[in-house]
Amino acid sequence: MSLLLPDLESEDGAEFWAGTSRGELLIQTCVSCDTPRFPPRPMCPQCQSLDFSWRQASGKGKIWSFVVVHAPVLPAYQDLVPYSVIVVELDESPNLRMVGNLLTRGDGPINEIDPNTIVIGESVEVVFKKVEDVALPCWMRSKK
Amino acid sequence: MIKDQVVIAGIGQTAFGKNLPDTELSLACQAISLALDDAGIEPKEVDGLASSVMELNREVDVARNIGLGEITFFSQISYGGGAACGTLLHAAMAVATGQARVAVAWRARKRSAKTSRPWAQMPERISNHWQWSRPFGLLRPVDEVAMLTRRYMHEYGANRDHLANVALAFRKHANRNPAATMYEKSLTREEYMGARWISEPLCLFDNCLETDGALAVVLVSAERARDLPNPPVFVHAGAQGLPPQHQTMTNYFNDNPLNGPSWTAARQLWRDADFGPNDLDVAQIYDAFSPLIPLSLEGYGICERGEGAEFTNNGALEWPNGRLPTNTSGGSMSEAYVHGFNLILEGVRQLRGTSNSQVEDAETCLVTSGEGVPTSALLLRR
To answer: What's the CA gap between B336 and B212, in Å, rounded?
Structure first.
């Protein structure tokens, strides 16, 4: 069994994943009321408009929370434990949060960061990690 | 309003264990049959059924095995651990509105087989909402709850000692309950602190059990209950809860992810109740993971926002002297994990006066289903 990856053709996710493959972090934004939303969906919950566009986010955010995953996990992840998973709050809006991994380098494994050094609130910047045909939005610590 | 119109007249449960030899269908039928015997009602009188969407035993099979009569109401409730109280609420509404006269709600599960765990059955390419979390290795329910737990600890100063308070209290109750999986296994704070991590900040003992077993309840009108053998346990109030912008399990994408479904269910639950959170004699709170207890204590208004962890100090959850004896049969963490249905039966036993950890003169009990998923809750009274 391999790693769990998104279906690049899914109804809600296709545009987002096409963006990450180009190195862009795209946030779905309502054309009528200008409200950004994540995860993507067909209708704006503010004004019920079906019209939306995709806006490139700054790719900057702060760690909102994190966990350190230990065994038992799915076989494909077994050799990676313990590894951390973070939730990042984007600088654009506190309502825009994404699950991701904190990496030491853009193509690094998810278990390279020492979890004991992770701090809620620290600044991170997006990187796009290639896994098979997917570019996963991951995060590196912002340079001070 | 359903207030006190419907009574839980019968309860039944199978043994709890790992790798029970009986099939899931057999377990369901045994539990329902025991509940009907307890209620003193013939199977052919049952005309309403309510169960979980995750229940694998279909109504047609249950009815054909037990010999139920003409079924005029059947419904299922979604969202796994959030469903149990909802099945009783729907059954109670059916009885209160005359769509059914004798309604059965049940849950049967063979969970201990590793292959039965939903998170272990993901397709390799994900097209639903899990595509926003699983590709990053956030795989299991415990990981998803640990993420909220870390944030909760950060915002409100909760720590592992508080979570240990929860695990130890429920284990003590299980040690008094011969039906509990952990009846003969004690747990110390040292053992808790030394346990292996599952998903930091949660360790092994912050997790519920994996259990095979089945439970059922029988609901009838308060009027009908007067002719039945058991002391009546009234469904005083019930509610479901799905808050705005909620996402099941990975509820990270809204204004305040720590305001979970319990907050929504609570507003409806208390709206028409004749008593309030401070009047509860005992509580059975969904505990697939220990942090759901402080979160639910806050959500259901038993304490203020951010005070749930502190609430667990000084044995507050423990029978007999705690402020609010909670999960008095051992709960999901130490009795059995059957999607929280065992919490309902323990609530009934408390109000009948037949619990192994009986709260003296208990008159009111809160029972909740899973926080972290669209949920449901009940207020029971005698």
So the answer is: 8
Closest CA to B372 of B120, B50, B83: B83
On whether residue A43 sits in a domain, the answer given is yes
Residue A82 resides in a domain = yes
ipTM passes above 0.85 = yes
Is B252 an annotated catalytic residue? no
Residues of B with Cβ-Cβ distance to A38 under 8 angstroms: 253
B24-83 residue pLDDT tens: 999 999 999 999 999 999 999 999 999 999 999 999 999 999 999 999 999 999 999 999
pLDDT 10s digits, A66-102: 999 999 999 999 999 999 999 999 999 988 999 999 9
Which of A65, A131, A136 is nearest residue B151 as measured by Cβ atoms?
A65
What tokens appear for B234 in the block?
């009234």
| Dist. CA B77–CA B261, nearest whole Å | 15
If one counts the domains in chain A, the total is 1
- Residue B94 structure tokens: 């059916």
The residues spanned by each domain of chain B are 6-114+209-381
Interface residues on A facing B, Cβ-Cβ cutoff 8 A: 1-11, 13, 38-39, 45, 64-70, 73-74, 77, 80, 82-83, 85, 87, 94-101, 110, 115, 120, 131, 134, 136, 138
Residue B177 corresponds to which tokens in the numbers above? 């309950």
Per the CB < 8 Å rule, is B245 touching A45?
yes
Residues from chain A contacting residue B141 (CB–CB below 8 Å): none
Domain range for A105: 14-141
From CA B330, how far away is CA B338, in angstroms rounded? 12
Helix (H) or strand (E) holding A89: strand A83-90
Residue B112 above 90 pLDDT? no
CB contact under 8 A, A66 and B150: yes
Give the whole-angstrom CA distance, residue A134 versus residue A5: 7
A8, part of any domain = no
Statement: the pTM of the whole predicted model exceeds 0.90: yes
Give domain status of residue A46, yes or no: yes
Which residues in chain A have their CB less than 8 angstroms from residue B118's CB? none
Question: What residues have CB less than 8 Å from B256, skipping those under 6 apart?
Answer: none
The architecture (CATH level 2) of B6-114+209-381 comes to 3-Layer(aba) Sandwich (3.40)
Beta bridge partners, B105, equal B50, B217
- Are B50 and B105 a contacting pair, CB within 8 Å? yes
